[in-house]
Design brief:
Chain A: Belongs to the oxygen-dependent FAD-linked oxidoreductase family. The complex is a heterodimer. Chain A has helices at residues 84-91, 109-114, 122-125, 153-159, 194-207, 258-270, 281-285, 316-328, 367-383, 397-403, 407-411, 421-426; strands at residues 16-19, 34-37, 53-56, 63-68, 74-79, 96-97, 132-138, 144-147, 168-178, 183-192, 210-216, 223-231, 245-246, 276-280, 291-292, 303-310, 335-340, 355-363, 386-387. By secondary structure, chain A is of the alpha+beta class. Chain B has a seven-stranded parallel sheet with strand order 3-2-1-4-5-6-7, with helices on both faces. In chain B, strand 2, helix 2 (35-47) and strand 3 (52-57) form a beta-alpha-beta unit. The chains are: A alpha+beta, B alpha/beta. The interface between A and B is medium-sized, with 14 and 13 residues.
Chain lengths: 432, 245
């Protein structure tokens, strides 16, 4: 079956797939462009290369070294095809965890770098790129370049959030952080309206390491659940979740429609909710990893995720977007609202910036979906915000250009042999 | 902690199995042809928690090298609890049909060299009256089929040899285990279209670790292959000849 992204929108033509299993292997001598394909968890087309070649990197999944320094900091060196889930499996029992983790652990280290992923602790820890000590790039001229803050620094900055376009990320050295247990202490609070969210969030950012809110985007007035958390102290034991279940088949029509979503969201909002809880960290960080292939629930036509960030001063834009979504009757199971802090990523194309980020899923419904996106795009653009390439399959080149002021600087580091559907779509924003 | 020798250690199934043993803190001695790949795998297994990892470069068809390799493994590990023979190639059936040389080379890699190694290791385990020798055979060795009978011949040879060795070792307390994987998605089978019957290397690895722990005789992996091969073995030749299997 042809490789596809998480959103399962149709791809044509398919790319040729070449599997890599050794980090020492050179790039293949093939016509056309190259692109790494990790675990296929980006939603849109940053991981696709129609008509070209995809270098499937999951077979390159070896650890290289793990060092703990005298000051207690730790560095893990590994192949770029290692999954964050592999790292957690091996290191969490030893008291080490990822300094930053996205909402699924089924992404490769290479993908985490290339999309400069962020997590629920952005206000404290920044993004994945802030914890990358070094990486090795294999360029199409045959050179292998070690990139670090003090070595090929410009290429390093271009590679973080560089969407795999600066060459093949072969291996990486990432920081791990100490945790005293696999448990988290979680505080859950229901809120009504965005003002309540912002008040809760301001207090949580000062007091807690992790903070995120689920919102019911179908309710007339935004409501949701705010979830703040911290790593629990030593001795705290929480039961690990059971084995993941798999979505058994792809329904021809998505069961996720206006009625079922509204019912689900209402039930989720009203479910009994402990104000204080101690839970294993896996279900907190990765609520959807318990259902493998959950993306199939959106049906055969596939779905989009729309994730934007707007500056904090433009908070009204979030309210405007939620109204537009509620009015459209389209909306998602997992709408997420969170703020980004001031820790700047080294990445030239890094998505996070100080501000408020909103992420929502939308099943593909053709013109109606496109019309809603056009409306949301206009709000984001007017607010001086940007969209997240890892989630995107359709943003106009102009919006990309406006959102990423260092795009031209970045483009100078793109390896001439590397490209992607996303890049071909948006690089029109560059001056010729 | 078990002391484990793995021959063909860079094969996808062996590597996945080694990872499971490393996670348990076992001591590993890895043997394979390619030094670079061996070193990469060894480093990985150390990070994953192996008590120790040592490597030796060897081509399994170099029969004269076997005894020295086994001595080195014994010395390196300080004994031997488990040996896994996992090396192999998937010869191209059509090329074998056109060339006696290709056919015999395929049988040397997948059959004769395995028998040679199993002889030495079997003797050792019999002498020490303990330990498990696990050998990766194949469902292809259960019945000759037009599409891959040269590979099947070599694997069938290994199957019969292991049956006999198991019979002989039964008195000693040592165990001979035949692993029979079905279709596995590895670099060796990268040219095949994959369907529902295909398993991942780690699925096979989990089965191998369990089968070694349980000191089983024969392990079809995944287990449903036992049933499939039972049927395939019992199809009368008259009907079998009309199939394209």
């Amino acid at each position: 079956m042809a490789l596809n992204a998480w959103g399962r929108l149709p791809v044509a033509p398919a790319a040729r797939e070449l599997r890599r299993s050794e980090r020492a292997a050179p790039l293949p001598a093939v016509d056309g462009s190259l692109l790494a394909f990790g675990n296929g968890r980006s939603y849109g087309d940053v991981c696709l290369n129609s008509g070209g070649t995809l270098l499937a990197t999951r077979g390159c999944d070896r650890f290289i070294d793990f060092r703990v320094e005298a000051d207690g900091s730790a560095t893990l060196a590994c192949d770029a095809g290692v999954l964050l889930a592999d790292i957690i499996d091996v290191f969490l029992p030893r008291g080490w965890f990822l300094p930053v983790t996205p909402g699924t652990r089924f992404v490769t280290v290479g993908g985490a770098i290339a999309n400069d992923v962020h997590g629920k602790n952005h206000h404290r820890a920044g993004s994945f790129g802030n914890h990358l000590r070094a990486c090795e790039l294999l360029r199409s001229d045959g050179s292998r370049r070690r990139c670090a803050p003090d070595e090929n620094a410009e290429l390093f900055a271009a590679t973080i959030g560089g969407l795999g376009l600066t060459g093949l990320i072969v291996s990486a050295e990432i920081a791990l952080r100490r945790v005293d247990s696999a448990a988290l202490t979680v505080e859950n609070t229901r809120f009504h309206g965005l003002d309540e969210f912002f008040a809760l969030n301001a207090a949580a950012e000062a007091a807690h390491e992790y903070a995120v809110a689920w919102i019911d985007c179908l309710a007339r007035r935004p409501r949701g659940i705010f979830m703040a958390a911290d790593h629990a102290p030593a001795g705290c034991v929480a039961k690990a979740p059971g084995a993941a279940r798999r979505a058994p088949f792809t329904p021809p029509l998505s069961p996720l429609n206006k009625l079922t979503l509204a019912a689900f969201n209402a039930a989720y909002y009203h479910k009994p909710l402990p104000a204080h809880a101690t839970t294993h960290l896996l279900p907190y960080f990765y609520p959807l990893d318990g259902i493998l292939d959950w993306n199939r629930l959106y049906g055969k036509r596939g779905f989009y995720q729309y994730q934007c960030v707007v500056p904090r001063s433009a908070a009204s834009a979030i309210d405007e977007m939620l109204r537009a979504i509620a009015a459209s009757g389209q909306g998602s199971l997992l709408a997420v609202l969170k703020t980004f802090g001031n820790v700047a990523s080294p990445g030239l194309l890094s998505f996070p910036m100080p501000g408020i980020t909103l992420a929502l899923d939308f099943p593909e419904r053709g013109a109606a979906t496109a019309a809603l996106f056009a409306r949301l795009d206009a709000i984001v653009a007017a607010a001086g915000g940007r969209l997240y390439p890892a989630k995107d399959a359709r943003m106009p080149a102009a919006l990309f250009g406006a959102g990423y002021p260092r795009l031209e600087e970045f483009s100078r580091h793109v390896d001439p042999k590397f490209s992607s559907n996303f890049w071909r779509r948006v690089s029109a924003a560059l001056p010729a | 902690m078990q002391k484990i020798l793995i021959i063909g250690a860079t094969s996808a199934i062996a590597e996945a199995t080694a990872r499971r043993w490393a996670a348990r803190g076992d001591a590993l001695f890895l043997v394979a042809r390619d030094a670079t790949r061996l070193d990469a795998s060894a480093a990985d297994l150390r990070v994953r928690g192996a008590a120790s990892v040592a490597c030796q470069v060897m081509d399994a068809t170099d029969l004269d090298a076997h005894a020295a390799m086994l001595d080195a493994a014994l010395a390196g590990l300080g004994g031997l609890d488990v040996a896994l023979i996992a090396h192999g190639t998937l010869p191209e059936q059509k090329a074998c049909e056109a060339s006696v040389e290709e056919t015999l080379a395929a049988i040397a890699v997948n059959g004769t060299s395995v028998v040679a190694l199993a002889t030495l290791i079997g003797n050792l385990l019999e002498q020490q009256k303990s330990g498990v020798l696990a050998v990766i055979g194949s469902v292809a060795g259960d019945r000759g089929r037009q599409s891959n009978y040269v590979y099947g011949t070599a694997k069938g040879m290994v199957d019969i040899f292991m049956q006999g060795l198991r019979h002989r070792l039964a008195k000693s307390g040592a165990q001979a285990l035949t692993i029979k994987p079905g279709f596995v998605d590895t670099p060796m089978t990268s040219n095949f279209p994959k369907g529902a019957l295909w398993a991942q290397p780690d699925d096979i690895a989990r089965g191998i670790v369990q089968a070694v722990d349980a000191r089983r005789d024969v392990a079809y992996l995944p287990g449903f292959w036992r049933l499939i091969m039972l049927v395939i073995r019992h199809i009368p030749e008259k009907i079998f000849k009309k199939t394209s299997l």
